[in-house]
């Protein structure tokens, strides 16, 4: 069996027929044979094509990243450009962003990549750049250690793992078994792909309110198991039902437009008997998640408590999710060298029960 025996489906053909039948059209790799799986994603560029004669939509693969959005406008120069600015030399990059506000244009993109890399690999940054916050466990490392401690012995890390909203995907370095890293931000995955290929990444960190700090991130080791990268959203993910034995989503639910739909999609992609691990600080921002979509506002009886609402939702899905373990985490986010935010996150390790016979 291939390491990533997970089939890919056309996001634009996902639909429910009038009789309730769920329909998905397989994708094929142009020039390949048979239905495409995650293993078929080329290391370089390629094209995936829908097999539905009425659709025939095509999806690019860029530098090994499968780009699979339902909305063709999801990749655009302003919000989600199809390039990695960190491929430029640091000298050129510094010249381009010098004097730009951190929250605009190229500077915002470069700052986002630096902050995400710090969140994933702060303990591997040069010692001179570590802060008091770096003394805290890296969130991805702490979550994977927790999963190993609470997972039933028969799980043993077998099967394919998906990390949703992965960012730079530190989880892949701490995991046993192959990992699919999924994120909607294409520049992040392109930068991550280069990091995986060359073992280092030159980046810029926002340092003071008006300056940048050049950093070379060097990995002490590669991931022990194979890694694949998929760029998509969770409105219409390109994976089938029950695709993954293990799904991990750290700090994702409060970063999407519709967290209830996202939770349902995560549940659908988890195989019966498999696990779904979710952490979130429930740090809602109304420009990302409309207040009407905050889960504590949607679930009767939650009394404004997001943890209560989450657990009610978990038990109401079909088949339900069993809460195996729960704990709190601390997660740090870099803004500048003088501003680092500490979040308190709730975490759940859930098992998807088998459907009733």
Q: Overall 3D geometry?
A: globular
What is the CATH topology classification name?
Rossmann fold
CATH superfamily: Vaccinia Virus protein VP39
Topology, number of strands: 15
Beta strand %: 25-35%
End-to-end gap:
28 Å
Question: In total, how many domains does the architecture comprise?
Answer: 1
Instruction: Report the mean per-residue pLDDT as an integer.
Output: 92
Q: What is the string of helix and strand elements?
A: EEEEEEHHHEEHEEEEHEHHEE
Radius of gyration (CA) equals 20 Å
Q: Structural class per helix/strand content?
A: alpha/beta
Strand order of the largest sheet: 3-4-5-6-11-8-7-12-13-15-14
Just give the CATH class: Alpha Beta
CATH-defined architecture: 3-Layer(aba) Sandwich
| Tally of alpha and pi helices | 7
Main sheet?
11 strands, mixed
Poorly predicted residue ranges? none
- Percent helix range: 10-25%
Describe the structure.
- The protein has 7 helices and 15 strands.
- The chain has 357 residues and is an alpha/beta fold.
- It has one domain (64-352): Vaccinia Virus protein VP39 (Rossmann fold), CATH 3.40.50.
Ordered list of secondary-structure elements with their pairings:
Layout: E1 15-16, E2 22-23, E3 27-29, E4 46-50, E5 58-62, E6 65-67, H1 90-97, H2 105-121, H3 139-150, E7 161-164, E8 179-183, H4 186-198, E9 200-208, E10 211-218, E11 227-231, E12 244-250, H5 259-269, E13 270-280, H6 295-298, H7 306-316, E14 321-336, E15 339-352
Parallel strand pairs: 6-11, 7-8, 7-12, 8-11, 12-13
Antiparallel strand pairs: 1-2, 3-4, 4-5, 5-6, 9-10, 13-15, 14-15
């Amino acid at each position: 069996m291939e390491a990533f025996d997970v089939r890919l489906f056309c996001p634009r053909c996902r639909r429910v027929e009038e009789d309730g039948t769920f329909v998905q059209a397989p994708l094929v790799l142009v020039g390949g044979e048979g239905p495409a799986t995650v293993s078929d994603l080329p290391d370089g560029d390629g094209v995936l094509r829908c097999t539905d004669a009425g659709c025939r939509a095509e999806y690019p693969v860029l530098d090994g990243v499968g780009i699979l959005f339902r909305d063709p406008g999801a990749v655009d120069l302003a919000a989600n450009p199809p390039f990695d600015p960190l491929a430029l030399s640091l000298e050129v990059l510094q010249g381009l962003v010098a004097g730009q506000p951190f929250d605009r244009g190229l500077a915002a993109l470069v700052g986002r990549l630096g902050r995400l890399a710090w969140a994933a690999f702060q303990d591997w940054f040069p010692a001179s750049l570590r802060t008091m916050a770096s003394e805290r466990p890296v969130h991805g490392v702490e979550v994977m250690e927790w999963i190993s401690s609470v997972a039933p012995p028969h799980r043993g890390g077998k099967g394919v793992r998906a990390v949703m909203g992965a960012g730079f995907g530190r989880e892949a370095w701490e995991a046993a078994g192959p990992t699919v890293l999924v994120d909607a931000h294409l520049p992040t995955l392109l930068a991550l792909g280069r990091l995986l290929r060359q073992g280092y990444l030159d980046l810029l960190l926002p340092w003071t309110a008006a300056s940048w700090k050049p950093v070379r991130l060097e990995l002490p080791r590669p991931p022990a198991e194979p890694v694949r990268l998929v760029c998509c959203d969770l409105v219409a993910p390109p994976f089938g039902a029950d695709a993954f034995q293990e799904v991990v989503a750290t700090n994702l639910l409060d970063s999407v437009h519709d967290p209830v739909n996202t939770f349902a999609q995560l549940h659908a992609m988890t195989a019966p008997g498999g696990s779904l691990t979710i952490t979130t600080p429930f740090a809602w921002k109304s420009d990302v998640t409309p207040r009407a979509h905050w889960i504590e506002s949607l679930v009767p009886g939650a009394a404004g408590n997001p943890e209560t609402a989450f657990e009610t939702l978990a038990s109401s899905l079909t088949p339900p999710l069993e809460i195996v373990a729960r704990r709190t985490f601390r997660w740090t986010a870099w803004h500048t060298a003088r501003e680092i935010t500490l979040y308190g996150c709730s975490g759940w390790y859930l098992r998807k029960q088998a459907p009733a016979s």
